[in-house]
Specification:
With about 220 residues, this protein is α+β, with helices and mostly antiparallel strands. It has a domain at about 45-190. It is about 20% helix and about 10% strand. The protein contains 4 helices and 7 strands, in the order H-H-E-E-E-H-H-E-E-E-E. The chain has helices spanning about 1-25, 55-60, 140-145, 145-155, and strands at about 115-120, 120-125, 130-135, 160-165, 165, 180, 180-185. Strands 1-2-3 form a 3-stranded antiparallel β-sheet.
């Protein structure tokens, strides 16, 4: 009999406790937890892997239009081209080429079309030592002046190389972990008329896997 009374008293107490808790939650006596912040999505532009420029070789390989390289669509073939300079010896850009901004070097001495182009053969380029090159060989032209950078590019420490670590020439038998590689040309990253590499929007810093609530930042883990 005493045991039944004890059990009944416990049940009454438990009922009262749960009733009080239910009332407290319904009245929101402790307040609501701070809303968890949504993690911002990374700008898709930062996820792109292609270079910001496309070289002549890329366009040829993709079989795309080469109208921008058809100099003799306007110029007379076989005729030596003549440049115009102002009273400060600065190159005068014709209206037909107003999209070209000359900025090759800070001293301005390289702002001369025929340092790279050939005045009587606009289909080719010329190196510093006078060798003629096709447009798809423009990286050799850059190397004729920028020797140390060209050597770094050949070694892979400058520019961008994509493909496999275990490299095999294209067209040869390949294993599961080897394959071809590609070195991007200078003009894939640098505008030949204004080679200074443009700035780009930085990627955001890494987020915590779980945002903290209540404005309290997680304690950093020490090494």
């Amino acid at each position: 009999m005493a045991s039944n009374k004890h059990t009944g008293a416990v049940m009454v107490v438990l009922f009262a406790v749960f009733a009080l808790l239910a009332t407290a939650f319904s009245l929101d006596l402790w307040g609501k937890p701070a809303a968890v912040k949504q993690l911002p999505l990374v700008d898709k532009e930062l996820l792109k892997t292609e270079t910001w420029r496309r070289s002549y070789a890329d366009l040829v390989k993709a079989k795309e239009g080469l109208d921008d390289f058809d100099c003799y669509g306007c110029h007379e073939e076989g005729k030596k081209q003549v440049l115009k300079f102002d009273d400060k010896n600065q190159l005068v850009i014709p209206d037909e080429h107003k999209d070209v901004v000359m900025g090759h070097g800070t001293h301005g001495r390289n702002n001369n079309c025929f340092n790279c182009h050939i005045d009587d053969n606009l289909k080719q380029l010329q190196t510093r030592d006078g060798r003629a090159l096709n447009f798809e060989e423009s990286t050799q032209l850059c190397g004729s002046c920028h020797g140390p950078t060209y050597r770094d590019w050949e070694a892979g420490s400058h520019g961008r190389t994509s493909g496999y670590w275990n490299r095999t020439p294209a067209g040869t038998p390949q294993g599961l972990k080897d394959g071809p590689f590609k070195k991007q040309d200078c003009v894939n990253c640098h505008n030949p008329h204004s080679p200074k590499f443009p700035g780009r929007k930085p990627a955001p810093a890494p987020n915590h896997l779980r945002e903290s609530s209540g404005g309290v930042e997680p304690t950093p883990i020490k090494d």
